[in-house]
Amino acid sequence: QVQLVESGGGLVKPGGSLRLSCSASGFTFSDYLMSWIRQAPGKGLEWVSYISRSGSIIYYADSVKGRFTISRDNAKTSLYLQMNSLRAEDTAIYYCVRHPHVDFQSWFDPWGQGTLVTVSS
Amino acid sequence: QSVLTQPPSVSGAPGQRVTISCTGSSSNIGAGYDVHWYRQLPGTAPKVLIYGNNNRPSGVPDRFSGSKSGTSASLAITGLQAEDEADYYCQSYDSRLTGWVFGGGTRLTVL
Question: In the predicted model, is pLDDT for residue A61 greater than 90?
Answer without folding.
Answer: yes
